[in-house]
Amino acid sequence: MSTSIESVLVENRVFPPNDDFVRNATVAGMDAYKALYKEAEDDFEGFWKRQANEHLRWIKPFTQVLDDSAAPFYKWFADGELNVSYNCLDKHVVEGRGDQTAIIFEGDDGAVTPVTFKQLLARVSRFANGLKQAGYKKGDTAIIYLPMSIEAVVAMQACARLGIIHSVVFGGFSAKSLHERIVDVGASLVITSDGQYRGGKALPLKPAVDDALAQENTEKVRSVIVYRRTGGDISWTEGRDIWWSDFEDGQSDVCEPVAMNSEDPLFILYTSGSTGKPKGVQHSSAGYLLWAQLTVKWTFDQKPGDVFWCTADVGWITGHTYVTYGPLAAGLTQVVFEGVPTYPNAGRFWEMIGRHKVTTFYTAPTAIRSLIKASEADAKVHPDSFDLSSLRIIGSVGEPINPEAWVWYYKNVGKERCPIVDTWWQTETGGQMITPLPGATPLKPGSCTLPLPGIFASIVDETGEDVPNGKGGFLVVKKPWPAMIRNVWGDNERYKNSYFPSEFRGYYLAGDGAQRDADGYFWIMGRIDDVLNVSGHRLGTMEVESALVSHELVAEAAVVGRPDATTGEAVVAFVVLKRERPHGDEAKEIAKQLRDWVAKEIGPIAKPKDIRFGDNLPKTRSGKIMRRLLRVVAKGEEVTQDVSTLENPAILDQLTESV
Ligand code: PRX
Q1: What global pTM score does this model have?
Q2: What is the pLDDT of residues 207-250, one digit of tens each?
Q3: 3-state DSSP call for residue 154?
Q4: Whose CA is nearest to atom 25 of ligand 1?
Q5: CA atoms within 13 A on the CB side of 562
Q6: How far apart, in whole angstroms, are the C-alpha atoms of residue 640 and residue 658?
Q7: What is the reported pLDDT for 108?
Q8: CA dist., res. 65 & res. 23, Å (int)
Q9: Which uninterrupted H or E stretch holds 35?
Q10: Residues 532-561: b if buried by 16+ CB within 10 A, e if exposed
């Protein structure tokens, strides 16, 4: 365990919830939290059985709660049947909430389109009927490559209605990344748009689909459904491409939901790991939905009348669980936003909170940090210049939030009245795992506090033994939970090796380092593997390295993360060219080429912030790249460690020079 994990600064300010909040909360006070936690401890299966029966509508009730006979391939509610889209839509219509607004969509340009549960159900049904007519059915796989829109939610829900397994690819990913995912899931369908608006600009999306489908192993794709968002000319493949509007034209508003087994995959979402290509994280239907709905209820304390806004894109897990599935299943009214936080100015989020009377706001520390900067430079975009009185709860997700940003968020956005829920979780966990409950948990800035009821999180050493409070270790979850990853798509071995390595006694290994303080609060220290977290997005250093070395000029590359005041971490690449080391303008020009190359290979989020050229990389005499050393060099710190085992210590001087 690295020393940085042991030595992290532990904040000691504590912010208890106010009495009013506690009185009205779903989980009211620490005793209520502890009682729920204890219920799960004392009767693990009974606890989950109760939750699943109370929160989900079943077509066929389950009789078995947990099947661990093939652990770590767990099954939950395995003989039950339900339909996820029914639970998100029909349920509310049947129960009399059909006229309630489900989504308030705000476009990049500020145009607002509301849709009720009844209307959303009709739209999902029409689209699903179109899919049925085109011959798509349960077990097929679809790629969704859409901007934030009502259509993205409709596409995902329509797939869920028919049992088509979707895999959403974030619109910022390149044609190459898209191609890899199309091939890996074996997609027969792609749902996309001509383009998207971001920050006042129309950006194309369809060309990346055309590009991806021109490459090998994509013959299975029979249809590309194109939602017209930006207009303008796009290339068209007759017989394959069809406009969204033509596709659903004339379809009935009624579509019978297909009965799905609890364990049927709902979706596959790719995320970076420490080795190789991104992993297709496979999620289930019932267990996933249960946790999406339950965490909305607990962590966000949502009630009728709440207006929920999660700013994440549906291309990430946060957008799956806290846009498409959780809020709909919980029957909330939610804001879906197409644009960026800084357009037309950095007051956009705060203005929208006022306009839509948002009560619950959930965003990433990176966004908060960049808005702090902007509001320091211009009072007009400071939260104080907007009406934020509707807010009740504010949340944070995706990366550690530094105590300074936490306190700013608490004071300026939450007005010292709204609890902050700093939620720790992952693509693989399906939903939030370690988080405060707003009406119960006393908050400490920078800590995600305590595990939710039913989640047996702990910190262990490399043998799986619990470490005492105050000592760093590996974050694990000791028991399975319903929303956990079910497999790495098509790769049982990778699933087992990545998440259940044998030395950890069958515990789920999260890949984060953490420690607990004297109160048992969890403090996340960041990844223990070669995964970076840039603006809350996961990136494997290996992915960026392989993108770099696939460029014709590059002989070798090593990528590390460096702390960054805005994006949390920044990508720093150390590169050895096949030719001599470049200098001055030439070095700048090549660095630019390499950045653009990485954007094309993976996506703009993976672009190295800093590229440094050397004649070689620092290696041990056995040829291993000394990444630990590179991390120090990347930070601009002096190298104090012993470099006597280095083959070529002089190389370090070259690598301290930024281009
Ligand atoms: O390192 C942790 C960090 O983000 C990783 C998971 O990334 P991803 O699968 O992309 O999911 C992000 C959205 C849930 C974790 O392994 N992380 C996430 N939330 C927090 C966090 N680190 C600290 N505090 C958090 N609240």
Answers
A1: 0.94
A2: 999 999 999 999 999 999 999 999 989 999 999 999 999 999 99
A3: helix
A4: 424
A5: 19
A6: 20
A7: 98
A8: 33
A9: helix 29-42
A10: bbbbbbbbbbbbbbbbbeebeebebbbbbb
The answer to whether 288 and 55 have CB atoms below 8 angstroms apart is: no
For the residues of 302-351, what is the DSSP string, one character each? --TT-EEEE---TTSHHHIIIIIIHHHHTT-EEEEE-S-TTSS-TTHHHH
Q: What is the pLDDT of residues 437-478, one digit of tens each?
A: 999 999 999 999 999 999 999 999 999 999 999 999 999 999
Sequence-distant (6+) residues with CB within 8 A of 94 are none
Virtual torsion, Cα 452, 456, 459, 462, nearest 10 deg:
-150
- Output DSSP code: residue 485: -
pLDDT at residue 425, rounded to an integer: 98
Whole-complex ipTM:
0.99
Query: What class is the 535-655 domain?
Result: alpha beta
Of 352-366, 414-428, 522-536, 574-588, where does mean pLDDT reach its minimum?
522-536
Report how far residue 397's alpha carbon sits from residue 438's, in angstroms, rounded to the nearest whole number.
15
Cα 430 versus chain centre, distance: 9
Cα–Cα distance, 37 to 285 (Å, whole number)? 24
Residue spans of the domains in the chain: they are 535-655
Q: State CA 199 to chain mean position distance.
A: 22
The amino acid sitting at 334 is Q
**Element (DSSP H or E) covering residue 630:** helix 627-634
pLDDT reading at 647 higher than 80: no
Taking all residues of the chain, what is their mean pLDDT, rounded to a whole number? 95
CA distance 538 to 34: 33
Ligand 1 centroid–CA 553 distance in Å is: 34
Among 5, 170, 425, name the best residue to mutate to test ligand 1's pocket (greatest count of ligand atoms within 8 A of Cβ). 425
Strand 554-564 and strand 568-577: the pairing is antiparallel
- The answer on pLDDT for 5 being more than 70 is no
d(CA 242, CA 230): 16
Q: How far is the CA of 537 from the centre of ligand 1 (A)?
A: 8
Task: Give whole-number Cα distances, 493 to 72, 488, 499, 501, 589, in Å.
Answer: 11, 8, 10, 10, 42
Q: Which two tokens stand for residue 476?
A: 């694990």
Atom of ligand 1 nearest to the CA of 510: 16
pLDDT score recorded for residue 377: 95
pLDDT band at 412 (very low <50, low <70, confident <90, very high): very high
Q: Contacts by 587-590 with C-beta closer than 8 Å and gap 24+?
A: 587/613, 587/659, 588/659, 590/553
Q: Which of 137-141, 272-276, 327-331 has the lowest mean pLDDT?
A: 272-276
Q: What are the b/e assignments for 385-417, b being 16+ CB within 10 Å?
A: ebebebbbbbbbbbbbbbbebbbbbbebbbeee
The pLDDT confidence band at residue 641, using thresholds 50, 70 and 90, is confident
Task: For a ligand 1 pocket test, name from 366, 434, 524 the mutation site with the most ligand atoms within 8 angstroms of its C-beta.
Answer: 524
Structure tokens belonging to residue 271: 């995320």
Residue 85 makes CB contacts below 8 A (sequence gap 6+) with 124, 128, 157, 158, 160, 161, 257
- Ligand 1 pocket at CB < 6 A: 271, 317-318, 397-400, 422-427, 448, 510-512, 524, 526-527, 533, 538
Taking the CA atoms of the chain, what radius of gyration do you get in angstroms? 24
Return the pLDDT at 659. 84
